[in-house]
Design a protein that fits this description.
Blueprint lengths: L5 H17 L5 E7 L2 E9 L4 E3 L1 H10 L12 H22 L2 H31 L20 E5 L2 E7 L1 H20 L6 H21 L27 E5 L4 E4 L2 H10 L5 E7 L7 E3 L3 E5 L11 E5 L5 H7 L2 E3 L1 H5 L1
Antiparallel strand pairs: 1-2, 1-5, 2-3, 4-5, 6-7, 6-8, 8-9, 10-11, 10-12
Helix pairs in contact: 1-3, 1-5, 3-4, 4-5, 5-6
Length: about 325
């Protein structure tokens, strides 16, 4: 009955803290995107309740015969906080006083619970999407509305995204930390440097990324469409991107399209705007990191004449050869 080493204790302590935090933040989210809701709708699943745009989603689902969602209808919201709390307490106690056998019990019971939770989640989604009111206002023969377990699925004119939220990433990170502690203790990982230089930073990076919110997304040319004009984005020199406060990315082939999109959606909740650097390798930068120019010698895909260049670049030669005139971002966006 050997005691755990200091590294395993540290990993288990961090895992326990992550699990405690996961009790107070959303664990999972299902995002719904449709033309009539450009900002999207979101269903957030906490350990003890539902959150997000529950009322709006219930109103929409009524027309297609889906059951309304209410926290009180789910026994899981009563049990889940206690289960996560027990795992958190076990992880913290083992980090101080535990032995190898306790770590083994913790890890395998945690994995079993994770698998059981996903099976239960799939079962709920299946029943929710298939058990429809036969007298609903809108009936599509043979159509079911089961959301994806994870990833994307098209449901009529709505795109549904099912992904972990902050609490979910914390939960996953906790499992990774427990696994690393187990592998180290039982000789599966023989070199301390592997844990310290790769696996542990990876687990922490997952957590930090999930907590910091969504950032810019790469724009894939010749595969993604402009969210305004619907044309294929084929030239990164003029591309741009909006990140909403909910973390969704809207991509455009020209600043003209981005501007027109915002004018048509005055209530759109913008978090950040990124614009592609006109100079190679055409990376996306936040508007605060760019200088903007008006030039008649460069035309974007939609005829736009505004380009952006990273402030750290030497743009003197470009300005000399194109007679570009500087313009500030606030003027462009108006």
């Amino acid at each position: 009955m050997k005691k755990l080493n200091s590294l395993a204790r540290l990993l288990l302590f961090i895992a326990g803290v992550f699990l405690i935090i996961s009790l107070f933040v959303p664990i999972w989210r299902i995002e719904l995107d449709a033309p009539q809701y450009p900002e999207g709708l979101m269903l957030q699943i906490f350990a003890n309740k539902l959150g997000g745009n529950v009322d709006i989603i219930n109103g929409l689902n009524h027309y297609i015969g889906m059951k309304t969602l209410h926290t009180d209808d789910f026994m899981e919201f009563i049990l889940l906080p206690y289960i996560i709390g027990i795992f958190a307490l076990m992880s913290l106690l083992i980090s101080f006083t535990g032995q190898k056998i306790h770590l083994k019990i913790l890890l395998f019971s945690f994995i079993a619970f994770g698998v059981l939770a996903m099976v239960d989640f799939w079962r709920w989604e299946y029943n929710y999407g298939h058990d429809l009111d036969p007298n609903a206002a809108i009936i599509v023969p043979g159509m079911a509305y089961q959301p994806p377990l994870i990833g994307f699925k098209q449901l009529l004119n709505f795109g549904a995204y099912s992904i972990p939220d902050i609490g979910g990433w914390l939960f996953i990170s906790s499992g990774i930390l427990m696994l690393v502690a187990f592998m180290k203790e039982f000789g599966i990982i023989f070199k301390k440097t592997i844990v310290e230089s790769f696996i542990l930073p990876a687990a922490l990076a997952i957590t930090i990324t999930s907590c910091s919110g969504s950032g810019k997304e790469p724009i894939i040319i010749n595969k993604e469409n402009c969210n305004y004009c619907k044309m294929i984005i084929s030239d990164l020199k003029y591309a741009s991107e909006i990140i909403t406060k909910k973390g969704r990315a809207y991509k455009f082939d020209d600043l003209i399209c981005l501007n027109a999109f915002l004018k048509e959606e005055p209530a759109f909740q913008v978090k950040d705007i990124y614009v592609s650097d006109f100079l190679p390798p055409h990376e996306l930068y936040h508007t605060s990191e760019l200088n903007f120019y008006v030039t008649s010698e460069q035309k974007g895909p939609m005829g736009g004449n505004i380009i952006a260049i990273n402030k750290s670049s030497d743009d003197s030669l470009f300005r000399k050869n194109t007679n570009a005139t500087p313009v500030i971002w606030n003027v462009i966006i108006k």
